[in-house]
């Protein structure tokens, strides 16, 4: 199940609800906000009128002078000045695995496994510089080498600076020599050139099934669960991040245990459960005989929930 809403649409929906409930864009009740009441009283005195103050679409945050007293703006600034860290929890881990499956199903080319390593350093670097270099590399691939979708996990303890990336690319066939050169070029400010910075296993660099894709990316994502980083440790393209699919079985999942003996179910909440398999065979068979059929079923099929007229969010 992939549940990544369109954030811009979600914000618009939330803002509409706040305004209808007499709240500002920050979610604060207008009639409980002392700064809103003070500004409205000032406006009434300036206009020479006296009337009851009513909640409305507060625009104080747009005024360069008045916004300094807005509690919503203050809170926003305080949050912006805090030192931030990023990490992967089990919910995010599950979402990443889901997007890997979606990426395999929506590929335009054969997916490949690759590892990006750092050549010998010629100067010091930090995580932000490394992220910028990786972003330049990805933009180069998208513009010049027809990269469509990608998933990447960065590993490294940050002590000896031996960072590396494990990636899945949906990309047209391109010489690994050229891709290696592109990667080294993006690192040229702080790394020497290396012929082997772009690596893969020749016998297994193609992903042949969705289970293989999920196992590959999950193997490395799971290593970072609970760890914190000041910069991003997981990367993917926008389309993959915003993938939205909803599905539901009418049947009890336990009905499948006879056919899939290594299946394990973990209930996450009242609406979602996570299904895992110890057997690669069971995992592939379950996907191909059950999940894949649901994805390709007619939208009116019983048990399949779809909202074609509504945007995700």
Strand order of the largest sheet: 6-3-5-4-8
What's the shape? extended
Largest sheet: 5 strands, antiparallel
The fraction of residues in strands falls at 5-15%
TL;DR of this structure?
This protein is 37% helix and 14% strand. It is of the alpha+beta class and 313 residues long.
Structural features, described:
The chain has 313 residues and is of the alpha+beta class. The protein folds into three domains: 2-81, no CATH class; 86-243; 246-296, no CATH class. The protein has helices at 7-20, 34-47, 71-81, 90-105, 127-144, 176-186, 210-221, 238-241, 280-296; strands at residues 2-3, 86-87, 111-117, 149-155, 164-170, 198-199, 228-229, 234-236, 244-245, 263-267, 273-277. The strands form four sheets. It has a five-stranded antiparallel beta sheet with strand order 6-3-5-4-8. Strand 10 and strand 11 (273-277) form a beta hairpin. It is extended and about 80 Å long. It starts with a strand and ends in a 17-residue tail after the last helix.
Defining key terms:
5-stranded antiparallel sheet, 9 helices, alpha+beta, 313 residues, 3 domains, two-stranded antiparallel sheet
């Amino acid at each position: 199940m992939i549940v990544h809403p369109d954030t811009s649409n979600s914000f618009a929906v939330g803002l509409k609800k706040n305004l209808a409930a007499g709240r500002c864009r920050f979610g604060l009740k207008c009639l409980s906000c002392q700064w809103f009441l003070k500004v409205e009283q000032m406006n009434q005195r300036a206009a020479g009128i006296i009337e009851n103050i009513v909640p409305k679409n507060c625009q104080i945050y747009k005024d360069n002078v008045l916004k300094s007293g807005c509690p919503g703006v203050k809170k926003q600034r305080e949050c912006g000045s805090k030192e931030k860290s990023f990490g992967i929890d089990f919910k995010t881990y599950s979402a990443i695995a889901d997007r890997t499956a979606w990426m395999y199903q929506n590929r335009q080319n054969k997916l490949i496994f690759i590892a990006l390593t750092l050549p010998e350093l010629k100067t010091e670097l930090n995580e932000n510089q490394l992220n910028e270099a990786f972003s330049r590399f990805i933009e180069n691939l998208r513009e010049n080498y027809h990269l469509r979708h990608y998933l990447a996990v960065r590993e490294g303890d940050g002590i000896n600076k031996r960072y590396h990336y494990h990636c899945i690319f949906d990309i047209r066939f391109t010489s690994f020599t050229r891709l290696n050169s592109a990667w080294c070029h993006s690192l040229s400010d702080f790394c020497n050139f290396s012929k082997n910075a772009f690596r893969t296993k020749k016998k297994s660099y193609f992903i042949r099934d969705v289970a293989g894709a999920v196992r590959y990316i999950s193997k490395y994502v799971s290593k970072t669960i609970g760890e914190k980083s000041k910069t991003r440790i997981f990367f993917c393209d926008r389309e993959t991040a915003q993938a939205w699919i909803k599905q539901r079985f009418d049947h009890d999942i336990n009905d499948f245990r006879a056919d899939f003996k290594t299946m394990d179910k973990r209930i996450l909440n009242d609406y979602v459960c996570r299904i895992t398999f110890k057997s690669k065979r069971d995992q592939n068979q379950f996907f191909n005989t059950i999940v894949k059929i649901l994805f390709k079923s007619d939208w009116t099929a019983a048990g399949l929930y779809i909202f074609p007229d509504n945007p995700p969010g």
